[in-house]
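Before our next group meeting I need something from you. Please put the record directly below this note.
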Amino acid sequence: MSLDQPVSRRLLSAEVFHRLRDSIVRGELAAGEKVKDSDLADRLGLSRTPVREALTRLVDCGLVEAKPGVYTRVTTLNRRDVDKTLAVLRTLDRLAVETAVPLMTERHLEWMRAANQDFERAVTANDTGAALEADDRFHAVVVTAADNPVLSRIIEQLHPQIHRILYRKFSTLLGGRNTIEHHDQLITVCATGDAGAAAALSAQHWSELGGHINRLFDDNQFTETAN
């Protein structure tokens, strides 16, 4: 949904948050770009209050930074912050997999297979948004099976930053294709019930993701500039 499409007043700040979040993830709002609640309110057809609330949430999840009285702007992706974010997610994901595998049923595996099939179709169609959504559903099966509300909340808090990273990764052919293979491998190992092996495999994938992202930085494909 376009950022410029008017928002129903009933949806208010939650919808504004999702619109702005997705615009940042896709790069429509560029890193370093200053954002003003008055300008955004005009574009969205809302008062400034829900926009301010949405911007506060975006600051909390790391997509926007604010210095009162000076600026509110989209944060810039840099190698150091990306590495640290991926390190945290790798640890959380390992815990989720270790906890989930002993509790998984054939139904969970079916959900993972279906999500990966949708992911592969999205990659083939070069539909980065659909690939990101399918990847979310794939990993959500593991988090749901783990049945740890605290873990779920922490991972959910990281999602906007991870989406911003993965959107760039899935925009490359390699980024999508190697993820399809990883998903297939993880399903196979989860089906054996070996939680340790599944967790190690998943952690390896996040490490490989870090290497891929570093190559994008090296090739200046991850550099973002303000408009």
Remarks:
- The chain has a mean pLDDT of 88.
- The first strand starts at residue 64 and ends at 67.
- Strands lie at 64-67, 71-74.
- The two ends are 21 Å apart (CA to CA).
